[in-house]
Recover the amino acids of this structure.
């Protein structure tokens, strides 16, 4: 039977801050929760799925959304492990992050209370990490676009664009190489908005 | 083309408080965002879908998740219209809420930038409001279970259960009559947890 | 006898956020409460009363202050109904807002526990809504000037003036047509301050 | 002419925390502003005025409300000077508080920009401090009742009554000796509510 | 020369939340910063040094305080790595935490801008981690006593003691085995206070 | 024996805001605690001690750190008495602040529970106030440099430099006349950073 702890993990994500923003200088009450981010990644994944289909690409929407909903659930246990932590371990860092989150994920999946479901949820996570299907690539692109939109929002509300220069460029680079065409199109919309704002700050 | 305003609406939901909790006495920084709630409704909808399928019920997961993701998007424009507002209008209140949210929803859907998508998103909203398909009933049940879990979480952290007596009972009543069997099962798990806590406060 | 619920309504206003500011992009902890705003409207109403009298205009100060204190009390029940909600109803919106707040107000007034007082408080609210006496016009002007001063304060603390362009212009327009001469004078002081700040941001 | 600094003082009070609550253990976002408190003192002063008049007592409502609105305005400059500060000076403490606030008040009143108004506002403050007219006594009683209601509100939301035992008893003692009969009546209502809550916590 | 980045690290610690408290259910604005904790560890280390000396034990106060001040400085880069993260790696977890923090620490120490100072600061960190001198043991004990006092403070303000049962017991166990006699004495004072509170909650 | 109240004072400092920042326009959740500031003053005092020693100056590090740790402890009782309060008393203001804090300090020191320690802690405070030893001058310089670094941090995160012009200049002036050479060197680093930021805002 589904355990209360699986349900609690869902609720807990509403309170876990995306701690990377604190590092970038965002005030704590302005830091989004992991749940906030996941919702946005879900909505953008849905939009990308629909736009891809309009272009004639076959996409399994159920699998996309399943991945989008579950991809950060383990952070109820591991928190939002920021990259800066692990950068001190050099190359080992990234592997380690996947290691920790993978173990946590198995722990979470087990609490769903049905062996079959649990196994299935582990597979979803693996598909996301391997990033080799159209469906996984859509979720990765949505994840990046959410970061860019969040930066635009923070800048619009008065945070200096200086604070986000590093993460902005790094994220743009990641999304640029996506094979998902509609994601590139959204990236253009977002980038244009970004340079508009930068302009209005200079003048 | 997808307009930046459709994307902004998604991001805005991270900052809109579920204002009903303020009325119940929750401190403002402890009030979840509409995005927080929507994420949880998505995850619970997915779980219910999977549990129903294990029982042999046919469910269209894509439609469930689409509805769960979109069902509160118009609140970026209308805010979380609390019931107490509208109770002062008597019976007209509920109809009015649907009216306002329906108009707002059409406005949002239009900004997606494709006539076909826009039309489709309006249909999703209508299916949710009419609440007559298995898929819509799953999302409604998930919506209610999220409220109960959120109350448990607030009580666990020190909020007196007195504050939530009204909304707890009202929500239990709503979920009890759901035709979704797995939702009733989750309700039992949640209720048991609820009385356990109440007990530990008395002793 | 005065019921505890009348007293509670007063205290509750300290916790109800003026939710319009959230829509404009203000961080939640920087959003004033309805009580914060009402205090400021009271103080500005008193100042306008005194300035008008210095100019020889007869003003009933008691009635002015009574209106200023009570004009938003019903928001303890209805919250701060933002205009954006109701704009989706078109012209019906404004009438509706008055409708909801009027019903709520009668409910609140009844809890004061004396039929005579209760009736009197309803009259105060009606005078405010009709906006046809000098006293009501003073409170309306004070209400608008508070909004402008609050915007100046938020801009001074780093919020971009872009965020408030719409509401600034709309409020200036409303105050400009007031028949209260001292209010126009305050408006000039506030507007000058406003363009000074805008200037210092450009340079 | 009225200076912008007089207007700024009004707005500033929305951001000055009533710092005594921090000392008592209240979380910072739950601490009311000085403006929050002043609004409540105004509304309670109005209610007491109306109740006294119903009993046949003659009260000058304008003077009451004027005092209620202005009585804490100088705290925009002096902050909310908590008693604990000054207790370290023994008997000199109270005199000192009046001294500091008196000087600040004169400074504020001067900025109103009219010698006559400025003088008048200083007199209002003096009447409040001397506490010898019916009008001043109403404002003092309202000030105390607001503190008691605020404690009830904090307890209702989960703060242990232990935190406020000292200030509760001290404030009850102050209000008990008021010559304002309606204030004693409100005190009974509030006290009854207070013991009800205490009871529900014990059981 | 000392680089601005060394100075920035100090300031950054004021904004890094001790994220473990979030996991335990504490509201985000009630979560102390790493700087808050470090200050308390310094003050308790000083007190323990003085108490030990009164008992005739020789303690190098300079070394104690140096360690207390510097022991968490690397968290400006690594954040407060909570144990729960690493528990998913089993036994490797603790070693890993020291690894990450050790690398970060070297990075920070280098920015002090003098090879000799930098080397010295690395030694301080090593002494702290090895925990084999009286001086290091004092800082470790102070670190634990601060956690216990912080729990008492949170409980006093209304957080249920349930939330902290695990971390309370675990920390008591750690401090109990300290060779520092004065620390055991403080532990007794703190424990007595802890059971007093628990009692008052039950009754 | 050490009383629990001495220990509580330490913990309380984590919650006392440095209220001066509120006056300057900083949002309440961005206001550091007194403990935050004290930690930073400790770390900067340690750095200055080490830099002075590298220059061949003899400094008693234990005495420096003892003073840095204890210098604001009395603010657990007196709060952070802002200068603006006392400016209304003219010249008497400064003397008064020392008076209040001195009495509070004696009260705190007594609670340490050993006559000898208590006496010693009072001496530490006196040395700090008299500001005539190298050790005291280091702590005073560190106190000022922390204020400047905190301003840089707030500006970097979007607060306009206008808000801090007064306190920035006043603090620079104070640190400029320090006899501590390394403090002047840090001041140069900080000032250069300050004008860099100002520049980037203008362009």
């Amino acid at each position: 039977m589904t355990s209360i702890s699986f349900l609690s993990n869902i609720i807990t994500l509403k309170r876990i801050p995306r701690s990377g923003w604190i590092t970038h200088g965002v005030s704590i009450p302005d830091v989004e929760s992991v749940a906030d981010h996941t919702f946005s990644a879900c909505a953008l994944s849905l939009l990308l799925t629909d736009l891809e289909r309009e272009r004639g690409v076959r996409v399994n929407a159920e699998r996309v959304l399943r991945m989008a909903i579950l991809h950060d659930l383990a952070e109820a246990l591991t928190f939002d492990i920021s990259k800066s932590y692990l950068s001190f371990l050099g190359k080992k860092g990234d592997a380690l992050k996947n290691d920790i989150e993978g173990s946590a994920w198995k722990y979470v999946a087990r609490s769903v209370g049905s062996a079959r479901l649990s196994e299935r949820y582990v597979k979803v996570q693996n598909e996301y990490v391997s990033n080799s299907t159209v469906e996984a690539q859509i979720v990765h692109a949505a994840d990046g676009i959410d970061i860019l939109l969040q930066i635009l929002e923070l800048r619009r509300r008065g945070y200096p664009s200086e604070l986000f220069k590093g993460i902005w460029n790094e994220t743009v680079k990641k999304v640029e190489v996506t094979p998902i065409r509609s994601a590139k199109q959204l990236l253009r919309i977002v980038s244009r908005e970004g340079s508009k704002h930068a302009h209005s700050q200079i003048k």
Observations:
- Chains C and E do not touch (no CB pair under 8 Å).
- Residues 199-203 of chain C have pLDDT under 50 and may be disordered.
